Amino acid sequence: MDLPVDEWKSYVLQKWSLLPKSIQVTISTAETLNDLFLHSSALLQPEDEMFLKRLSGGYVVGKDPDASLFYREKGNKKFQAKDYMGAAVLYSKGVSHSGPNSTDISLCYANRSAALFHLGQYETCLKDIVRAQMHGYPERLQPKLLLRKAECLVTLGRPQEASQTIIDLESSFAAKPTLSASQFQILQRTLCRVKVKVQEKKNLPEIFPEALTKTFEGMDLREENEQIPGASSSVTLHIDPLKGRFLVATKDILPGELLVKEDAFVSVLNPGEVPLRPHSLESKWEIQATSGDLHCHRCLRHTLAPVPCEGCSYAKYCSQECMQQAWDRYHSVECSLGALLLTLGVFCHVALRSTLLARFEDVGKVIKKLCGEMSNQGICLPESKTPAQILKYGQGGEGEKTDKAVETPIPGCDINGKYERNYNAIFHLLPHTENHSPEYKFLCAVSVSALCRQLEAAGLQAFTTDLKPTKLKAAETPVLGAELNVWGVAMLRHMLQLQCNAQAITTIQQTGSKESLIADTRRVRLATALFPVVSLLNHSCSPNTSVSFIGTIATIRASQLIRSGQEILHCYGPHESRMGVAERRQKLRSQYFFDCDCPPCEREKQRPSAGPGREAFRCHRCRALLQGDDVLSCSGPACTESVGRDLLVSRLQDLQQQVGAAQKHLRNGRLGDWEKSATHLQKSLQVVEVHHGPSSVEMGHELFKLAQVFFNGCAIPEALNTIQKAEKVLLVHYGPWNDEIRELQKMKSCLLDLLPIPVGPKE
């Protein structure tokens, strides 16, 4: 998913293995990214491009009226079975495959509006009705669409608009009676019912629905950092020859304090399992929903009613506004390349989009480092001032002196020492070129070269530094210049950066049966992004922060007390509670190219015989790790506790069996089992506490499940007590806008309404 598809990887690596040794050495020892790119690009042959074209041809990303009909019919079957959610997803797929202003797209929008109406999504239903009409919904079917519109307006408390819609509907009946007698009678009965509702609502005050978009009130930084926009004033930026750039606390920071709130500079939605075009005609189109079907491709908002790009079936958005913004900034270039980008992987896509976004900044000030790499073997350029010259020589506007680059104390900062969240910061993320294997660098360079050739062949104006969003029109047919190779080097740099600097944007996805006592969830990767400020945080296997996401916005909160002068740390993946020191260090070394020397690793590597998971036991008194083989002793400096390993293993196995039993009861979803489920879950909390600690996010999730069980069993005191504990833990890690916290607050409100009113003693 991050890297190209396996077939292309295998093809390029085989090509590498067949290269003469001298060429391999030339590429392996290339001193600059420019050298690496030019040598690799020269080896890309027409037959290589043809192979890549055949691979990308396996992805269905274009418009297809047959697909639109297929998905609409499948959606109709789901609708008839009252699976309105499934119907909405299939109608959305039909919308994506339909051309604009066609009967196909109007019918899909209209049918989706019906599914949304049954799901109670009335505002979104109204939008789909407008879209269906805008794209030429058949006049003979307009009455039922208008009737659905009137019902939505009544339900939303807008009787005046509903009355006008009814007048329009009755006028339509009188002017053009297109319905049969039986259809007309059914419609008339429904119309009478709606009229009654309108009369009931007319004397009530107008009620407007709340905005569907999430607000971030309560998520703002208390005081934003003047040096690092998006960061709290409680931190400052330092640099060290060994550690690089990092953040340090300027004062004592309490658990739960918001330290960073940052929108991604660039993000690309992970496509999920997008299947290649199957050979069987019966399964030509995929009916399973993927992340790309359910989330906006720009802001990542979850949506049941996406608006598709008019030029491809792949890109979908939560609104017309998001679609236009994406088109203006990058999708006008990416639209025709959808299949190729799916083939080349998310990293290549992020690299392309990063350079496309750089067009909207003064790149003459941020590419000087690249120019330095290219100074000895520069790309031949025309004499006139072009964007490529700006990239090569660092020239800005007319009259600007650019004899030498201005030195800044910290890479990525401007001349005033301010670390801006812009392309300058992205460009200065380290690519670690010297650490990547020659094969990996060759794969990245050849993939970027192939992408550049496709951009050139398509005649797309991909890289123009004076471009403004309003200037890019779909009808324009611009021509590429010599600067494409320069930007190819920039894309290669970004692709190499991503292994160490890419941030996975994750979300909580609900799984399991709707009838279950609890909402079972799992964390899934939604997108890959670059965050300039988040990238400043170094790793610890026992971090002092928690990272969470709402759309493309990352928030970092202190998960424990951080003293003034301490470094702000987060976990890159390998955590002390999930794997042993040897495995953690191996993973960090292979992906991030460093040997971790955080306190847990330093402490645990003194015991080289310890295998993965053997250090998972903690002292029940002071929470320090237990050390030893057959007899475990507390590693705490002032604690003398010890216990036999066999006893702890026996207890752990017993608890794991009880956790399994609890999960079985919960999956069965029988209310009569809630007491057993609660008992088992309470014991499973002990396992979670041993592995992750009492204030860990894992503990918060388990407490949330237990609260659900108590709530469904109407055990009011127990539920309220557990809700309070879960809220306390989850607020530290996520803040008030987390979905689980909001659900806990709803449960608490409901339970408080059920509490009996205390009656005083009789006098």
Outline the structure in words.
This is SET and MYND domain containing 4. The structure is a single chain. The strands form 6 sheets. Strands 3-11-10 form a 3-stranded antiparallel β-sheet. Strands 4-8-7 form a 3-stranded antiparallel β-sheet. Strands 13-14-15 form a 3-stranded antiparallel β-sheet. The chain is mainly alpha-helical. The chain has 27 helices and 15 strands. It starts with 5 loop residues before the first helix and ends in a 9-residue tail after the last helix. The protein is globular.
The main sheet comes to:
3 strands, antiparallel
Which descriptor suits the 3D outline?
globular
Strand content: 5-15%
Provide the residue-averaged pLDDT.
80
Which regions contain 5 or more consecutive residues with pLDDT less than 50?
201-218, 373-408, 464-481, 608-615
Helix content: 40-55%
Main structural class: mainly alpha
- Strands across the major sheet, in which order? 3-11-10
Q: Give the C-alpha Rg.
A: 30 Å
Secondary structure: number of strands: 15
Through-space gap between termini: 75 Å
Number of helices in the DSSP assignment: 27
Organism: Ovis aries (Sheep)
Protein name: SET and MYND domain containing 4
